[in-house]
Automatic annotation (TrEMBL):
Designated name of the protein: ubiquitinyl hydrolase 1
Gene Ontology annotations of biological process type: proteolysis
UniProt organism field: Hemiselmis andersenii (Cryptophyte alga)
GO molecular function (one): cysteine-type deubiquitinase activity
Main enzyme class: hydrolase
Length: 606
């Protein structure tokens, strides 16, 4: 008993204990100081105090240190009095602590509350902490960021944003004051969340690359939640700027979805998230209550993700092909119907006069039409073939105002693609809609569309024989000789895009049965080069949307001219059209047809 009393009263141990308490009190008082340097020194004092704490030594890692919460230390560091330099030096201290959800909430609210350099430093602090967090804590961070995006999606005015940010909960005056400030700048939270996500997944910078790899290797739940956050960022108003959108897609989304990080040990989730993101976008576009901005972004992201799936002839064993992906999304979400419904909403905002101008090519309406064509062109395999039926064609015609130049221009491109319409639907579209247009007021793109369908319908029916518009034509469905006359763009070794026209095609030989060669005349040099392009990628093709020249074809013979479908329409355009250029073009077509007709039929026409 005497020895125990003497041990307890050991003056050296008592002095050491009091010294620790004094150091802690000095550090705590310094955190509340109005002198910047004292607050900065407090960090090292606190760090040393925690390392000497019995609880930390026993924890063998991170300590709870509840006395920090009792004295509102983290609130003072990240609250309204936060300083960029001080915030940047908090990481060593925070890594010693058990970061509970309450503590993380303080830091995350600071990430949404502050502006300028303080906000940037808070973001860096969180990124440094994520690599040491377990799966649950990482998921908590992502959930809190997602709450800001969800709140904005439900209420773009920002009135509900405050509730989203305060969901972590606070129990003291310091944080309440911070939240009042947060409420005053609620409209700024979305930008803060967007900046945090871009910093977190910016693989062009080392800290973003390391964070991205770490997040994608923390399991399926964390990886898919990260994709929720990343897609939500892409749907914000900040990505209406095409450069910002492409940067986030190229530097962040693509790196996540194409990554093979951790696949060797079964932990990587990169490639597995491709289907998840595609389905996420389809859910957004197929929901009639989704905002127009979100629909616009979701369609754009969907197309970019679909491009990551290899086409059948490039796929390796076990890979999901692009055709299989599109077909599966259509079966599950009816993407084509979502696209057509959105086209109807978009076209309601334009009058016919605007739909007849080239300005329509700069609108979201035309972008959606090109996306629709992309989906159709990239589903070519017999097993996964995707086409428009008669109901969908009628819906499209009505949505685009029927005989508007925008509608007819797209239909001409669809005709050039080949294989976009179900069997007999092209004939239905031609006879029931195109050949019933007003011939007197038909415009250049309208006649261009008629000419394309006139060639295809009559050629398919065997009424005449033509070369150049038979079989597969443009887009991803084009191959071989059908490339001739097409415009292409190719990235050369000088890292510049060069445009040209394919002028000849050389089929495979016995020596090289799989090699197809094309000769291209380049616009900038005028020279012709031969390239071994067994299969051009879809991004090589350059669509000349302003051109009123269809994919050329040559009539070889007209064995049964009396059965030509749409000949009366052509005849009417020749004599009744008010546009001289259209009338002359119709007359040239008719004269060209006359060269292949027998004498008796010519007499009938005369």
């Amino acid at each position: 008993g005497g020895l125990l009393t003497m041990f307890k009263s050991d003056p050296r141990k008592q002095l050491k204990k009091r010294l620790k308490a004094s150091l802690r009190n000095v550090a705590l008082q310094a955190t509340k100081s109005s002198v910047w340097q004292q607050r900065r020194d407090a960090l090292s004092f606190l760090e040393q105090s925690i390392k000497n704490d019995k609880e930390f030594k026993q924890s063998q890692g991170q300590a709870l240190c509840e006395w920090l919460d009792e004295n509102q230390v983290i609130d003072d560091l990240f609250g309204e009095r936060a300083h960029a330099t001080i915030v940047s030096e908090t990481v060593p201290l925070l890594l010693l602590l058990d970061l509970t959800e309450e503590r993380l909430s303080v830091i995350l609210d600071a990430a949404f509350m502050h502006v300028g350099s303080v906000r940037a430093e808070v973001h860096k602090v969180i990124l440094n902490l994520i690599k040491e967090m377990n799966k649950n804590r990482t998921r908590f961070v992502l959930d809190r960021v997602m709450e800001v995006f969800d709140a904005h999606a439900q209420d773009p005015s920002g009135d509900k944003a405050f509730k989203a940010s305060s969901s972590g909960g606070f129990k003291n005056n310091s944080s309440s004051s911070a939240l009042l400030s947060l409420q005053r700048i609620g409209a700024n939270q979305l930008q803060a969340a967007f900046e945090f996500v871009t910093a977190m997944f910016d693989t062009s910078k080392l800290h973003g690359l390391f964070t991205t790899v770490d997040v994608m290797m923390k399991g399926k739940k964390v990886a898919t939640r990260a994709m929720d956050v990343l897609v939500a960022a892409l749907l914000t108003p900040f990505c209406e700027d095409q450069d910002a959108f492409q940067k986030l897609v190229q530097d962040s989304l693509f790196h996540c979805l194409q990554s093979s990080w951790g696949e060797g040990d079964g932990k990587g989730q990169g490639k597995a998230c491709k289907e998840y993101v595609a389905e996420l976008c389809c859910n957004i576009v197929s929901n009639p209550e989704t905002s127009p901005l979100a629909v616009k972004g979701a369609f754009a992201v969907l197309i970019e993700v679909i491009r990551l799936f290899p086409r059948t002839n490039f796929a390796q064993r076990g890979d999901k092909t692009r055709e299989e992906c599109i077909h599966g999304l259509q079966k599950q979400f009816d993407v084509l119907q979502a696209c057509l419904s959105n086209l109807k909403k978009l076209s309601a905002g334009f009058d016919k006069k605007f739909m007849d101008t080239d300005k329509v090519l700069e609108t979201e309406l035309w972008t959606r039409l090109l996306q629709l064509r992309y989906l159709l062109e990239n589903c070519t395999e017999k097993q996964y073939n995707l086409t428009l039926d008669a109901r969908q064609v009628k819906m499209l015609w009505e949505a685009l105002g029927g005989h508007t130049e925008a509608c007819l221009r797209w239909l001409r491109l669809a005709a050039d693609s080949g294989g976009i319409f179900e069997e007999n639907v092209q004939n239905y579209l031609y006879t029931e809609f195109i050949c019933r247009m007003d011939t007197a007021h038909l415009k250049p793109h309208g006649f261009n569309c008629y000419q394309a369908f006139f060639g295809d319908v009559n050629n398919n029916a065997g009424v005449f024989q033509a070369a150049g518009r038979d079989g597969q034509k443009s887009g991803c469905k084009i191959n071989g000789a059908a490339f001739v006359g097409r415009r292409v763009r190719v990235l050369w070794k000088d890292e510049k895009m060069h445009n040209g026209t394919i002028c000849t095609y050389m089929p495979p030989t016995n020596r090289a049965p799989e090699v197809q060669k094309h000769t291209v005349r380049w616009d900038d040099t005028g020279k012709e080069d031969t390239h071994d392009w067994t299969d051009l990628h879809d991004w090589h093709l350059l669509e000349d949307e302003l051109s009123v020249n269809i994919l050329p074809y040559e009539i070889k013979s007209i064995p049964n001219p009396s059965s030509l479908v749409g000949l009366e329409f052509l005849w009417s355009v020749c004599f009744q059209n008010a546009d001289d250029s259209v009338a002359r073009k119709a007359q040239d077509v008719l004269l060209d047809l006359g060269r292949y007709m027998d004498a008796s039929f010519k007499d009938v026409i005369l």
